[in-house]
Design goal:
Distance between the termini of chain B: 33 Å
CATH topology of chain A: Rossmann fold
Strand content of chain A: 25-35%
Strand order of the largest sheet of chain A: 6-7-8-3-9-10
Helix content of chain B: 40-55%
Number of helices of chain B: 23
Shape of chain A: globular
Oligomer: heterodimer
Distance between the termini of chain A: 33 Å
Chain lengths: 232, 802
């Protein structure tokens, strides 16, 4: 297995106000697999994603990525882990306002020893005409595409997407999902996407449904539906 | 190596926030430029001064005889291993109230530097000292005249006035052909015993040999300069030879005055005193740089809160903390570097001359050539960059120490507020709102507090310094030992140890002729010791006064029991400068020797004019082997008129003691206004930037309030009035701490760089002025803030809080 998650537990607060957010999560994913984490608000899906991404820590349990355990990593090593293996896409695009589309993507390519070709990526993302614009000149969908480009350009092993369509309308959401699907197929990255949109589960290889910090069920789709076909 | 794409932001950041960067850069350019100019001028002038000894062939010493030396005397004096040069002069009391010492132009020793115009070539022409001309509004082509009557009035001091009056028995008028600097008068000491020079009422000049030959012999002062045939190699050897020479000379001629170069204040003072301002300028630079670095730190902090989600994303992507620290440090360092370069260019060109003029106001220095000053470069370029790097690095390290998730969630406070603190509903709504605004912005207001603290340091310094000089003058006047204080000058031949009988007779004559009928007169002894070198503080002379046990002028002098160290009172100036109090002991040593003396401090005497020690005259004469009847002068309430002027070395009266303040006003006046300017400028810039940040941080809330229907003035009342209250509280709260700190800094600086003591007295008027300036500055900023609130768009609140 490329990614192994074993008995991850996480709680916030103390005493009476203690809330267990993750209560022993186990999950294994193959390289190139597309996984969707589904669940209502407070189910722990974003926390799990953040722990996988090394920007939050588990109280117990272990995550092993490509044979490398994360639990012994210090801050510096975690940063290097993220630099080497991960790409992040958030609901909010968090683009640098005074950099152009192209430069925002280059912010990601700077971190990689073998980045993808920025021009090619710009074309793939449909941003070629907008490459010289700054984020404030772009629509929400274009901004999110730029954020995807920034995450993908370093060709990460795992692409973590936290509600990437949460702030977008139906049409734009579909465009973004198509793009993520295309990235997955073109570059073979493992993708873990957090969403509360039940329809998205059909485009995944593995669907993990979380409730109250525990995995309610894990479904492996025999056949992935294309993003184009999704309706909600 | 790959170029970091984040670097593309720099130029755009600069363009977007041009106002902020320009304001900060201007402040830095002006600060660095001025300090650089000062250090360059200082370094160049010190070099010119040091080189002047060779370039202008400055004497090894001079002496004055009662009568002109004859050929035999000349020969025998030269036989002592000296080259002798005539340096005769005549003094004139001028109609402008000053005294002019006129020499024949020199061509062998103490050469003259022509700074403007031409040297005089015929009778009726004169070249006067450049500084004297500047200070008295004279220029080339002007005519100066001797005073018709009342020559004493306004003369440099009692002695010179008397001498000038005596000699000024004919009317003269000269046309000024040139302005000069006499290499043996870089500082205008009319008398080597004076405590301070007088750049206003005493001047020197040269005339042509034809003009000089018209002066009657009786009016001339027979002064001779000497150079050693075999110059001494060390300062110690120079001192030894100087002390031996006076004995040898007094065998050959009747000496009226004897000043070896090492003791000649007119030559040495400039060199010793130049650079005392340097510490102040450097301190100013460092304070300014810390303030500016701090301002940058604050603006960076603001940028970090605005860009928190971006930072969180970058950190989540794998950017290291170090990379981001370097990124956010780059702009401050770049602006500092650019400012340092421009500042140094200005320093080496325009501002250098401004600073050199400050020296030219105090000292009569020859022309100088600007030299590259590595120290100035390091202090004005490397140090500011290092200060900026250290301050911004520390702030960034702290600010960027949060986790990526905290940045993504905008959880920028290390401790989150659990719940709102309760406020009584009886408090009017607007007041409750303001209290909430203050509570929410406590970190910002803490920043404001620190900023005000720094700005107030400069403000209090700039405002208090001139007042401190006034206060010093008042203190000197109030604590004056006596209305008149005469220092006797023992004829040199009365001290000739090789002709003991002759010198004893001379001494008897001196003693009998220096008795006075003045009933208010009281004898005292005086002796000069120095504080041993106490690194890093400057060594300085300490005057020891010996007064009668029941003195009318120095009250409460302690008696010294047999076999104990002398018990003394120290002046309040001494006590305040070195923190010495009753019960302590002090150790002083001979000015030109190794002997040390220990004194027990019995108390502090209220005397702020100088660093001195008071003890019983009997004990003192015994302590220094001066002889039991020895005395150095008189304290008196009324002028002593029955002692021949030739026995009076100098008179220390209010005028002479406060020469220091007059001189400091002339030499430092422009600098004080400059510090004032810096203080107010930094103050306004700081308040402007900090207020700007507070408004920007609250932009969303302000926008929301607008949407809810609050008017601009209502919002102003909510946000600006909160800031006003906090501002005023911070302003007032920092004043006591700032007062203590600045007094401490000033004390350290004076100990390091200056002899004597001037307390940085901070009177109520200073606080009133501070408040007026502080409130005025804030009022201007408040208007800008109101305008800024008006410009906050309503869609600000509708934006997603990314």
């Amino acid at each position: 297995m490329f990614l192994e998650i074993n008995q991850i537990k996480k709680a916030f607060g103390q005493g009476e106000s203690r809330v267990e957010v993750l209560r022993g999560i186990d999950l294994s994913l193959e390289r190139g697999e597309f996984c969707v984490l589904l669940g209502p608000s407070g189910s722990g899906k974003s926390t799990l994603l953040n722990i996988i991404g090394g920007i939050d820590s588990a109280d117990s349990g272990e995550i092993v990525i490509g044979g490398e355990p994360m639990s012994h990593m210090r801050e510096r090593q975690l940063t290097m882990y993220r630099r080497k293996h991960l790409g992040y896409i958030f609901q909010m695009y968090n683009l640098i306002p005074n950099l152009t589309v192209r430069e925002n993507i280059e912010v990601g390519s700077y971190l990689s020893d073998k980045p993808l070709d920025v021009d090619e990526l710009l074309k793939l993302l449909g941003l070629w005409e907008h490459r010289g614009k700054v984020p404030s000149q772009l629509s929400g969908g274009q901004q999110q595409r730029t954020a995807i480009g920034r995450a993908v350009v370093k060709n990460p092993d795992i692409l973590l997407c936290d509600e990437p369509t949460g702030a977008l309308d139906y049409k734009t959401s579909k465009e973004i999902l198509k793009l993520i699907e295309q990235v997955n197929k073109t570059y073979g990255n493992t993708i873990i996407m957090v969403t509360h949109n039940d329809a998205i589960k059909y485009m995944a290889d593995t669907v993990v449904r979380l409730r109250d910090g525990a995995i309610r069920d894990t479904v492996r789709n025999k056949q992935r539906m294309s993003a184009e076909e999704l309706e909600w | 190596m790959k170029k970091n794409p984040l670097n593309n932001r720099f130029i755009r950041d600069l363009r977007n926030d041009l106002g902020k960067y320009v304001v900060i850069a201007l402040l830095m350019i002006f600060t660095i430029g001025f300090v650089s100019g000062f250090l360059v001028a200082d370094g160049s002038m010190v070099k010119a001064y040091n080189e002047s000894f060779t370039k202008y062939n400055i004497e090894d010493g001079n002496f004055r005889t009662q009568k002109k030396m004859n050929k035999a005397q000349w020969k025998s004096v030269e036989g002592l291993g000296l080259h002798l040069y005539e340096l005769f002069y005549r003094e004139f009391a001028l109609e402008n109230g000053s005294t002019l010492r006129v020499f024949q132009n020199r061509d062998k020793v103490n050469l003259v530097c022509l700074m403007e115009g031409e040297l005089p070539v015929k009778p009726g022409e004169i070249a006067v000292d450049r500084m004297y001309a500047d200070n008295n509004g004279l220029k080339v082509g002007d005519t100066i005249r001797t005073a018709a009557t009342g020559a004493e009035e306004g003369a440099a001091d009692a002695d010179t006035a008397a001498a000038a009056s005596e000699q000024n028995n004919d009317q003269n008028a000269w046309v000024i052909t040139g302005l000069v600097a006499l290499s043996d008068y870089s500082t205008m000491f009319s008398d080597n015993n004076d405590t301070m020079f007088d750049a206003l009422k005493f001047g020197v000049a040269v005339c042509s040999p034809e003009e000089f030959s018209q002066y009657p012999d009786s009016a001339l002062n027979y002064n001779y300069a000497w150079k050693y045939v075999d110059p001494p190699k060390t300062e110690e050897e120079e001192n030894d030879r100087g002390e031996d020479l006076v004995k040898d000379l007094s065998k050959e001629v009747k000496l009226e005055n004897y000043i070896p170069r090492y003791a000649n204040q007119a030559i040495r003072f400039t060199g010793e005193d130049m650079g005392s301002d340097r510490a102040m300028m450097e301190l100013l630079l460092y304070i300014m740089m810390v303030i500016i670095a701090f301002v940058f730190g604050v603006t960076i902090g603001n940028t970090i809160s605005q860009e928190a989600p971006v930072i969180g994303t970058l950190r989540a992507m794998g950017y290291t903390k170090g990379e981001l620290i370097r990124h956010y440090m780059a702009m401050p360092l770049l602006v500092t570097l650019i400012s340092a370069v421009i500042g140094n260019i200005l320093g080496y060109t325009f501002l250098k001359d401004v600073c050199a003029n400050m020296y030219y106001n105090s000292y009569s220095l020859p022309t100088y050539i600007t030299i590259w000053n590595a120290e100035a470069f390091v202090k004005t370029t490397i140090f500011p960059i290092v200060i900026m790097a250290v301050v911004t690095y520390s702030i960034l390290r702290w600010k960027l120490g949060l986790t990526p998730l905290q940045f993504l969630r905008r959880q920028l406070r290390r401790r989150q507020m659990k719940r709102a603190f309760p406020l009584s509903v009886r408090i009017p709504f607007f007041d409750r709102f303001r209290i909430r605004v203050i509570a929410q912005n406590i970190p910002n207001y803490l920043i404001l507090l620190v900023g005000i603290f720094f700005a107030n340091i400069l403000l209090i310094f700039g405002l208090a310094l001139p007042k401190a000089l006034d206060h010093y003058q008042e203190e000197v006047e109030r604590s004056l030992l006596a209305e008149h204080q005469y220092i006797m000058q023992i004829p040199l031949d009365a001290l000739d140890e090789d002709h003991k009988l002759q010198s004893a007779l001379k001494m008897m004559q001196f003693v009998s002729e220096t008795e006075t009928e003045n009933e208010t007169a009281e004898k005292f002894s005086a002796y000069t010791l120095r504080r041993p070198f106490d690194a890093p503080y400057k060594s300085e002379d300490v005057m020891i006064y010996g007064a009668a046990a029941d003195s009318r002028y120095v009250k409460g002098i302690p008696e010294t029991p047999e076999g104990e160290n002398p018990r003394v009172l120290i002046s309040s100036a001494y006590s305040e400068k070195y923190d010495i109090f009753a019960g302590d002991t002090i150790e002083l040593q001979e000015k030109y020797g190794a002997d040390r003396y220990t004194f027990n401090v019995a108390g502090v005497y209220d005397y702020g004019a100088s660093i001195c020690v008071f003890m019983e005259q009997k004990t003192m004469n015994q302590c220094f082997d001066l002889g039991k009847d020895y005395f150095s002068g008189y304290f008196s309430q009324t002028p002593i008129t029955d002692i021949d002027g030739k026995y009076i070395g100098s008179e220390i009266d209010l005028d002479s003691l406060t020469k220091v303040t007059r001189q400091l006003y002339i030499s430092m006046g422009s600098m004080m206004y400059l510090v004032d300017f810096f203080a107010v400028a930094i103050f306004m810039v700081l308040i402007y930037i900090l207020s700007k940040i507070i408004i920007e941080k609250n932009a969303q809330s302000i926008s929301m309030a607008k949407i809810l229907g609050y008017t601009g003035s209502e919002i102003g009342k909510l946000y600006i009035r909160s800031t006003t209250v906090v501002y005023l509280l911070c302003f007032v709260a920092t004043i006591p701490a700032v007062t203590v700190l600045i007094k401490y800094l000033m004390k350290i600086m004076i100990r390091l760089e200056m002899t004597g003591w001037i307390e940085l007295y901070v009177g109520n008027i200073v606080y009133e002025e501070m408040l007026a300036l502080g409130i005025g500055a804030y009022a201007v900023i408040a208007v800008l803030e109101y305008r800024k609130i008006g410009r906050v768009p309503m869609d600000e609140a509708l934006k997603n809080a990314e």
